[in-house]
Amino acid sequence: MTKPPRKPSQPLLGDVDAPIRSRARRRRDPAQSQLLLDPMPARIEPCLALLKSRPPKGPQWTFEVKWDGYRLAVHIEPSGVRILTRGGHDWTERFPAILAEAKRVPVSTAILDGEAVVLDAQGRSDFGMLQQSLGGRGGKRTSRDAIFMAFDLLYFDGHDITGTELVSRRHLLEGLVPPGGEEAIRLSEEIDADGEKLLRIACEHGLEGIIAKDRNSPYRSGRLGDWVKIKCVQSDGFAIIGYEKSTASFGGIGRLLLAARKGNDLVFVGGVGTGFNERSAGELRQQMDELIVGKPAVDIGRKRNAVFVRPKLVAEIEYRAWTHDGKLRHASYKGLRDPADHSDLYEV
After folding, report:
1. Homologous superfamily of 43-231
2. pTM of this prediction?
3. pLDDT tens digit string along 69-86?
4. Which of 68, 299, 303, 324 is most buried, by CB atoms within 10 Å?
5. Active-site residue, selected from the candidate residues 3, 7, 52, 66
6. Is 66 one of the annotated active-site residues of the chain?
């Protein structure tokens, strides 16, 4: 890896001429007291982006496209490759193209953080296409269309580098996944631009939004503000608590009834009646009809022709804004989130 960092940064782990050492994450075997390697973690909780309405300003922020897919971690070891979802589920066999490409990455051990996506004809990530390639929610098909957009490197050649600043992690990542590739593992490239201008261009091209990341931040699990997401159109997960019947709509679904989390409870946030096609509505109706209950999980007021279900299904919903009384405005159904994706419900 001879490519220098784009901008000057602190050395990765001290003197560049000294052997690379890093702090052990657990006690080492005394018989291997001279071993200068960190144990490879079985799993690292992902760093999550905090939703903001506008891009942050300042020279410490770098930007990327926001990808709409499944968050994955690709673990590369001499014994093989594991592909884990955000919730820690092993989906290695469901992404054969990503698996095959991971075996060709020029490294002995590594953990790559990124997003599995399926791209449309314009090169935009399409969550619905990804779900279809996997057989829908709860489907067991393998996806040969999915590619992995890598945007961070957490473990590299025997060393835990989560405590290192992003600019150095990215430098190492680009040595493994060069920019401009067309393989099943590709680099989510950084874009040096004004955040407001970049967001406007992203929205004009029909992208979901952008991600801003603090160049100097270590990799910290959770939603702590080191990464920020700014969306062109809001899109979040909401619990399905029922539906209104209609003889004129696909699957007989006139409108889904939705709820968000408020503390430890759920609260009604309105409904959505667009975004379905014949196939998605039919599959959704079949799953809802297996969850029918006699009364709604939350107070929804008086609804005609309503069928209530246990809040086990999480729908991804696009929406433009909120009404003054806390209901979704201009909502559209995108698909069901898989439980293995460990998606959070929107919190009001």
Report:
1. DNA ligase/mRNA capping enzyme (3.30.470.30)
2. 0.69
3. 999 999 999 999 999 999
4. 68
5. 66
6. yes
